From TrEMBL:
<keyword id="KW-0408">Iron</keyword>
<dbReference type="Pfam" id="PF19112">
    <property type="entry name" value="VanA_C"/>
</dbReference>
<dbReference type="Pfam" id="PF00355">
    <property type="entry name" value="Rieske"/>
</dbReference>
<protein>
    <submittedName>
        <fullName>Rieske 2Fe-2S domain-containing protein</fullName>
    </submittedName>
</protein>
<dbReference type="GO" id="GO:0051537">
    <property type="term" value="F:2 iron, 2 sulfur cluster binding"/>
</dbReference>
<keyword id="KW-0001">2Fe-2S</keyword>
<dbReference type="InterPro" id="IPR044043">
    <property type="entry name" value="VanA_C_cat"/>
</dbReference>
<keyword id="KW-0479">Metal-binding</keyword>
<dbReference type="GO" id="GO:0046872">
    <property type="term" value="F:metal ion binding"/>
</dbReference>
<dbReference type="InterPro" id="IPR050584">
    <property type="entry name" value="Cholesterol_7-desaturase"/>
</dbReference>
<dbReference type="InterPro" id="IPR036922">
    <property type="entry name" value="Rieske_2Fe-2S_sf"/>
</dbReference>
<keyword id="KW-0560">Oxidoreductase</keyword>
<dbReference type="GO" id="GO:0016491">
    <property type="term" value="F:oxidoreductase activity"/>
</dbReference>
<keyword id="KW-0411">Iron-sulfur</keyword>
<dbReference type="InterPro" id="IPR017941">
    <property type="entry name" value="Rieske_2Fe-2S"/>
</dbReference>
<feature type="domain" description="Rieske">
    <location>
        <begin position="30"/>
        <end position="138"/>
    </location>
</feature>
Length: 359
C-alpha cells in the first residue's frame, strides 16, 4: 500500500509513539494545574496532567501532589477528606478509608489485621509541587529540566495585572497553543483592526536567539491604534494613527510564553502558561499586565478585548492537524521563511527536547 500524502496523514492524528513521546518528555517540566486560590486547606482538588489523574491537597500546611488513585481499588482520592492519623494530617480515600500522608506514604489501612505493618507497596509516589504567580505547578518527574518561569511585571507595583482563566479546555496540544501565541504573521488575518491590517501583511524582521532556558524573539511592527497601543486615559492621545511598537517574546519550559509589547504609551505584557491536560487538551492560564491606563475601571475593557482576541484564535487553533507539532522531517507542514522564523526555531527546540519525535 502506498504511503499516505502528508495532508491525508494529518487527518489520522498522531501515532501512539508521537503521543507517548510527548507525554514522557513533557513530564520533565513544570506545568500549572490550577489557580492557587482553588486549593483550600482541608479540601483536595483533582486535576489531570498529561493524561494522569493528580490530587492536590494541603496537609499540615504543606502542599502535596500525588496520584489521584488509591492503591487499594483505584478510587479517586480527590473525593475523600483530610483526617488526622497519629497526630498528622492525611488524605483519606472515600471507598475503604485508606489514608495517605505527605510524601504519599500510606499511614492507615482500617482493614489491616492488628499487628500487621502497612506494606510499602501501599505507598503512592509524591510529585514535585510549588506555588508561583498565583498558580499551582506540578512536575511529574523527580528532576525538572528547567526552573519555574519568571514574570517580573506581575510583582512590579508599577504594573496592574489581570487574570483570565478559560473554563473551557482548548482542543489542541499545549505546544500548539504556544506556537499560536508566538506566531505574529496571523495578526492581520485573524485579528484585523486589532493587531494587524490585511492591506499590510508583510512579516516583520525577526531576531531569534536562545538565552539560558528561553527562546527569545524580538521584532518591530506597526499596529492599529487601540486599547493595547494607545493610553486611553491620556486626553492628549487624540486621534492617534498607526502605532510602531517592539515585541520581545520569551518562551520558557516550553509551555509558557511572555509577550512584552513596548509602545509610546508604555508596556503591555501577555503571559500564557499552558497545562497539557493531555496531548490533545490544554488548560490555559492568562495574565495581562500594563503600566498605562491604570484605572481599575478600565479593567473590564481590557479583559473584554483579551477574551475577544482569544475567541478569534480558538476555532482556528482547534482546527489544526495534527494536534501535536510534527518534526520537520515529516514534511507535514510547510513553514516559510523568513516570516515563520520564530515558529521554525521553536519547532527545532521542541524536537531537541524530545517533545516532537514522530508523525
Amino acid at each position: 500500500m502506498p504511503a499516505l500524502d502528508p495532508i491525508a496523514r494529518a487527518d489520522l492524528g498522531p501515532s501512539p509513539k508521537a503521543i507517548e513521546d510527548f507525554r514522557s518528555s513533557m513530564a520533565e517540566f513544570w506545568h500549572p494545574v490550577c489557580e492557587a486560590q482553588a486549593l483550600q486547606e482541608g479540601r483536595p482538588v483533582g486535576v489531570t496532567l498529561l493524561g494522569r489523574r493528580v490530587v492536590l491537597v494541603q496537609l499540615d500546611g504543606q502542599l502535596v501532589a500525588m496520584p489521584d488513585t488509591c492503591r487499594h481499588f483505584q478510587a479517586q482520592l480527590s473525593l475523600g477528606e483530610v483526617v488526622t492519623v497519629g497526630g498528622a494530617q492525611a488524605l483519606q480515600c472515600p471507598y475503604h478509608g485508606w489514608a495517605f500522608g505527605a510524601g504519599g506514604h500510606c499511614v492507615r489501612i482500617p482493614q489491616l489485621a492488628e499487628g500487621r505493618a502497612i506494606p510499602t507497596a501501599a505507598n503512592l509516589p509524591a510529585y514535585l509541587v510549588e506555588e508561583r504567580h498565583g498558580l499551582i505547578w506540578v512536575c511529574l518527574s523527580g528532576a525538572p529540566r528547567f526552573p519555574l518561569p519568571e514574570f517580573p511585571e506581575l510583582h512590579d507595583p508599577a504594573f496592574r495585572s489581570l487574570r483570565l482563566t478559560e473554563e473551557e479546555l482548548v482542543k489542541t496540544s499545549s505546544v500548539r497553543m504556544v506556537m499560536g501565541t508566538l506566531d505574529d504573521t496571523h495578526f492581520p488575518w485573524v485579528h484585523e483592526g486589532i493587531l494587524g491590517d490585511r492591506d499590510h501583511p508583510e512579516p516583520p524582521d525577526h531576531r531569534v536567539w536562545r538565552e539560558g532556558d528561553e527562546l527569545i524573539v524580538q521584532y518591530e511592527t506597526v499596529q492599529p491604534p487601540g486599547l493595547l497601543t494607545v493610553d486611553q486615559s491620556n486626553p492628549e492621545a487624540g486621534e492617534a494613527g498607526d502605532v510602531t511598537l517592539t515585541y520581545t517574546d520569551y518562551v520558557a519550559m516550553p509551555g509558557v510564553i511572555r509577550l512584552v509589547k513596548d509602545s509610546p504609551s508604555g508596556r503591555y505584557v501577555i503571559w500564557l502558561a499552558t497545562s497539557p491536560v493531555d496531548w490533545n487538551l490544554t488548560q490555559t492560564f492568562w495574565i495581562f499586565s500594563r503600566n498605562f491606563d491604570m484605572a481599575p475601571e478600565s479593567d473590564d475593557a481590557f479583559l473584554d478585548l483579551s477574551s475577544h482576541v482569544r475567541l478569534q484564535d480558538k476555532p482556528v487553533i482547534e482546527s489544526q492537524r495534527p494536534w501535536l507539532v510534527p518534526p520537520f522531517w515529516t514534511q507535514m507542514e510547510l513553514p516559510v521563511g523568513p516570516g515563520d522564523l520564530p515558529l521554525m526555531q521553536y519547532q527545532k527546540w521542541i524536537e531537541e527536547l524530545g517533545i516532537a519525535t514522530a508523525i
